[in-house]
Design goal:
Chains A, B, C, D: Keywords: Lyase, Purine biosynthesis. Chains A, B, C, D: Pfam families: ADSL_C, Lyase_1. Chains A, B, C, D: It catalyses: N(6)-(1,2-dicarboxyethyl)-AMP = fumarate + AMP; (2S)-2-[5-amino-1-(5-phospho-beta-D-ribosyl)imidazole-4-carboxamido]succinate = 5-amino-1-(5-phospho-beta-D-ribosyl)imidazole-4-carboxamide + fumarate. 4 copies of one chain form a homotetramer. Chain A is mainly alpha-helical. Chain A is built from 20 helices and 6 strands. Chain A folds into 2 domains: about 95-340, Fumarase C, Chain A, domain 2 (Up-down Bundle), CATH 1.20.200; about 350-430, Ribonucleotide Reductase Protein R1, domain 1, CATH 1.10.40.30. In chain A, the strands form 3 sheets. Chain A has a two-stranded antiparallel sheet. Chain A has a two-stranded parallel ribbon with strand order 3-4. A two-stranded antiparallel sheet of chain A has the order 5-6. Chain A is elongated and about 100 Å long. The two termini of chain A are about 40 Å apart. Chains in contact: A-B, A-C, A-D, B-C, B-D, C-D. At the A-B interface, strand 1, strand 2, helix 7, helix 9 and helix 10 of A face strand 1, strand 2, helix 7, helix 9 and helix 10 of B.
Chain lengths: ~425, ~425, ~425, ~425
């Protein structure tokens, strides 16, 4: 995590203050349950809730000596609570606290990521409707194919992020479980009722069977999901990078007056935000593999997952949060150039209508092979003229073509509206 | 894909015969819809259904010339259908066929994987109940921790694969969509009704917005899910490898009479199946990254995803199918040694009860620090005696301990049943 | 491995025939050494060399029963050799044969990859010199920056693949070792002299210390290197894909007369080869992670690496061989359009000279900040005019600019040659 | 990067102070070269060297406004240098500074990693000689195979880290290049002599051909190499984790008096350092993929690599530095238990001699199949007796065995020394 690519709300989840606060709540709620069970006196729970507090610096100090973070926390807590502190953590293991805390943190992180996605969806939707009918070139293989609209491009992105949102919701559900089951998950020293009580209080579900730790397939699924979402961030970022290329220039990241695109070349306006998003996507995807490798812990648990999660827990959620937010800003303020879109669309002398002509020839009775040959031989001339020749002109001068399709039938085939007639249908599917 | 790690049913999905059959069905169903729309004559659809067939070898032959698989298929189909063939594929693009076909293949592959998981779950459940109450050592960090039962170990695996199953169901849903939307997804040359008809006939949902291709975030999620499942396969395989270690030997892969464990060392019985599963898990996880990289196609599509999917589509599903099946066999026939489990459990002179004694000291009024120190100093002697000394003997000889806990109170703390009292609770959570 | 992305020479290395032939040679050479050591009779070695042969089908048949490939091979070999066969494999373990064989296969695969790289380098060099002085746009962030030459673009690729070649040579060296050291690498049952003899005969070095297996850090380094080379393949492929975009069209993959770019759109000429290379690069990179995970085998060895290598050994070398060869063909026949390059270069009204003007203003005495501001404010007008305005015209009309640089000093700053004066220097560095 | 897994020397390389200092040196050395070339006045260079300094906080302040780190640095520098500052950075681009700086940082990081490896090698060597002749069980598949020595286990690790060291040296060489070649690498505005001068002054080689940036295949190779080294760290860590398992307990991480292994179970001594190393290895490996994805930048450069490197540059080098250092400490203080090794070695009733007996039977004239059958049938009885039966006793009671090998010939086959006779040979290979 580096400040440059971080937002405070997500960072806060991962700060010691927040972590210890969650630990405190888990321990205190557990005491309430233990009181109910008659295991600890009611006064002890009361003391913890009333006098319980902690200081990060003091915990650090103790940890330097004990080399055990939970023990350091409990020691610091005891300094405030007093003798009743000996009932804290009764029958629990460190992992009961650590793993349940991680669940809370990941669930909160997921909440932010879901909210980020909602903001992104809102931005995409607004711009999509704004340009629902703005004709633009559809490209396959980077090559002009057939017309589409800029709104449709954004509708695709919208539908993709709706899926991402659903995946994040599922990932959150995967991870939001509570385990307070003791050293190997048998509840030997702690009643299952404690787990149930803490789970409810912390808005988690209970882990049906744990083994000191919450099983790491849950976390693997969580981080894998972030990797998929990062892929979608990269897709939309890549689209914008392409559109901003000098020769295309159909859209541009917002460029503030006075901004410097390059220290050396004053003329530059670079898509640096979306390039940055491409890099951030690589990072978030890179965290997937360590998370997958974390699943196969030894027997009831080993601690190899811990260092991995200390890094990728914050790094992946902070980075993806930043990326989603940055992407929202990019979309929100994106400079869109309909004139240039139209200019590009018309650049290739009508080639974009080649399929329709092919179909018309077939429907007029020409064989598929002949139709293809007739269109291709004229299209290639246009192609090689770099758009100087017009396909329509060549076709009407080709008697083999006009034998099947006279000029009057050819002309309407070059109508742009033909390609855009189902835009509303698709918008209804996506946004309804 | 190599035969050694393949099963015929899954392989069949990926064979040319199956692929072309799906293509045929897509094309033929599309024609039915085009007939309904009045775009092509009813006779043409009838001709396709009645006379349509194909030969893999002939398609290969044509493809060597045209270098285009869909065109080769259509040409071969036309050889059988005759002149009505010119109505086939009307207004469609190759991707309409290819991507919808891939959806069908992945959905069928998912069905097999789900069935595999069901078989695995059944095997785990049977063995779990068989050993519900078989005491065994619970280990954290590879070190004896506290007792559990072998049934609980398997219950954990069961719960994990129940989650895997749910993930596979979700992954199947992600992928089971149909796109017949034309060159850039605008339905310019084909009515959306065709897509709807084919989707229904092929048991798919419609893709709300496609761009010649079905968006690859769906496939990324699918392959990422397989990677997570592979992680769970590795976890259970690793458990068995550990249990079969010579010094542990609490369970063994079935070893057939006459089987040779090693060409050089006739005494060997190696956990080769679960080691193999560990390797297969690496492979399936390795396919996740290319799938994630496939998401960010250029503009409406580029074809970089295609070679990736030609490889990882079969490789990941065939490998995971084989792995799940192999794991089922391993569990089903696993040799389980309760006597050895008990022997290991008792190996460390009662150290496994250390937490309970710690708690009892605390509850008797000793401070947490003192309690820890008292138990640890006796436990370390047992530890260093390699199980020759018994913790109980040392404790009753330690006056600082007996000051808090007299012998009569110490004795019942060494009861194994204490650890197993919630087994039924957990089984109810997992299997109910 | 699928035929579509395979070349026969590399495939042959991985076929059973080749593998068994290497096994045979290892066993026979080992016998020669054992004869020298007096361990086995000279006749036995003679018998093996003279009568030793094998049949793949027969080995398969035996393996189906014994489930052990080396035992199956030895049994089949014995059927031909007769009683002297009992001296074959004396004191050896299967891994001695398997691992040394894999070394031979990977070394041969590396030889082909190195030769592939040589062919690619030759093609790049030829085209680089052909276009050493062809001016073309240099682009950072996809945005016009300053002029370069097409030869320089290729010189960069050349230097990169020279590095790739050196890495492949180093990777080959890493992997070309021989281990014949017995069950745990102690040479208990076989003298180190056998290893030395076989190593020399098979053109390998000896493995200083093995543990039944050759350590897998060597293989990890090998496959990681292939992943890096794949990255370089992707870089050059991506460059060509960009150059072929309709709006750029400065180069094109060769398009054969009669070729069909799209079944639906007869006008299309798509960069499908380089898109394919992008996908193949993803695959080769995807094999790196499993290879890295193979390093940490348990104790003296476990067999988890084996299934991984059975897949990625062939898949990564075959795919990269195919990719390098395909890329060579693409470069060799690449259609290059100098006119279009020049047209694009001039497209932005002289903006490409902005840095030089900035420097000239600074050198004339303007502050860096003022200079930047003056150039940028004029450059942005050109930018927004979409190349309709010329930077030169605006500058000479800006009195703040001409106060520092009069027209006569501005004019020569727009000289293209200024940018190309060091082309020979760079070519000397790269190709000398 | 988190403090818990960081060491100050490596962290320092990546701190702003260090980075700006390198920037300063690059700029100042470049000025010297420009003076020599007559491009800038000698006084300007002198002023920079004499008055040039910077403040991190001030640069941050400026950057918040300009959003460009190099411009912020230059502005701050100018505040100290005065008017001569306008000659600083003459003809250079930001990347000239940034990329050359990254080379210096990575080279310095490599130096530390190489020194770390040297320290690790020294520790391994010392312990290897200490236990050169300590017999211990060699295990394949986690199953007892044949005897080896603990020194040989460490000799293997030594040889592996010797290879790692060589790879780090090569990786350092890959990365230690300098590029000062201008906006697209043509040296349009800066003479190649500047690059040569700065390269020499900063102990780098010149980059033969750059394109504003140093090509990222170099960095990919660097980070891939770190991933391989991490794999070797994991291998040795895994070995120790296995040896510390309760049932094996042949070695243990050092456990300080008063240390707490578990907050709940006072008896625990867990291999937490090596488990931690396993996790850290996953992290370092996880950074390989983003580095590989960074290679294919668009055209002359895009900036997608930048965010990746800002994270993985520090994270991978700091983590690996920490891991190598921690592993050195683990080896250095490792508690090694020769008695327990011998006890385990003898645990399986002499099964570890099975191969030697097999060979002796063959050499006595029995067929390979018969020999195998005879040894296996007795070995399996020992196996199933859990080491209660002795192989020797069973063999001498098996008339089919004694028919080939009478007792007097069987007895010497159970000699441990037989397995250790080549230890010196291997030590000479590894340490000579």
């Amino acid at each position: 995590m580096i400040p440059r690519y971080s937002r405070p709300e997500m960072v806060a989840i991962w700060e010691p203050e927040a972590r210890y606060q969650i630990w405190f709540e888990i321990e205190a709620h557990a005491m309430d349950a233990l009181v109910t069970l008659g295991v600890v006196p009611a006064d002890a729970a009361k003391a913890v809730w009333e006098r319980g507090k902690f200081e990060v610096a003091r915990i650090d100090e103790i940890e330097r000596e004990t080399r055990h973070d939970v023990i350091a926390f409990l020691t610091n807590l005891a300094e405030h609570v007093g003798p009743e502190a000996r009932f804290v953590h009764q029958g629990m293991t460190s992992s009961d606290v650590l793993d349940t805390c991680l669940s809370v943190q990941l669930a909160r992180a997921a909440d932010i990521l879901i909210a980020d996605t909602d903001a992104l969806l809102a931005a995409i939707k607004r711009r999509a409707y704004e340009h629902k009918d703005t004709p633009t070139m559809g490209r396959s293989h980077g090559i002009h194919a057939e017309p589409t609209t800029f709104g449709l491009k954004l509708a695709q992105a919208y539908a993709e992020f709706v899926r991402c949102r659903a995946r994040l919701v599922a990932a959150r559900e995967e991870i939001a479980t509570c385990a307070i089951s003791g050293a190997v998950g048998t509840f030997a020293n702690i009643d299952p009722a404690v787990e149930a009580h803490v789970a409810k209080a912390m808005h988690l579900t209970i882990e049906p069977v744990s083994t000191q730790v919450i099983p790491r397939d849950r976390h693997a699924m969580f981080f894998a999901t972030l990797g998929v979402v990062a892929g979608s961030v990269e897709r939309l970022a890549t689209e914008i990078r392409h559109l901003q290329r000098t020769e295309v220039l159909e859209a541009e990241e917002y460029f503030a007056p006075g901004q410097k695109g390059s220290s050396a070349m004053p003329h530059k306006r670079n898509p640096v935000l979306t390039e940055n998003l491409t890099g951030l996507a690589r990072l978030v995807r890179g965290y997937v593999t360590p998370a997958l490798e974390n699943v196969a812990l030894w027997h009831e648990r080993d601690i190899s997952h811990s260092s991995v999660e200390r890094m990728i827990g914050p790094d992946s959620t902070i980075t993806l949060d930043f990326a989603l937010h940055r992407l929202t800003g990019v979309i929100d303020k994106l400079l869109i150039y309909p004139d240039r879109m139209l200019k590009n669309l018309n650049k290739m002398g009508g080639l974009i209508h080649s399929q329709r002509i092919l179909l018309a020839l077939t429907q007029a009775g020409a064989s598929r092979e002949d139709s293809y040959r007739l269109v291709q031989r004229n299209a290639m001339k246009v192609w090689e003229s770099d758009g100087q020749l017009q396909l329509f002109d060549l076709l009407i001068a080709d008697p083999e073509v006009t034998a099947w399709l006279p000029v009057a039938q050819l002309e309407p085939l070059f109508d742009l509206g033909y390609h855009l007639k189902h835009v509303d249908t698709i918008f209804n599917r996506v946004f309804a």
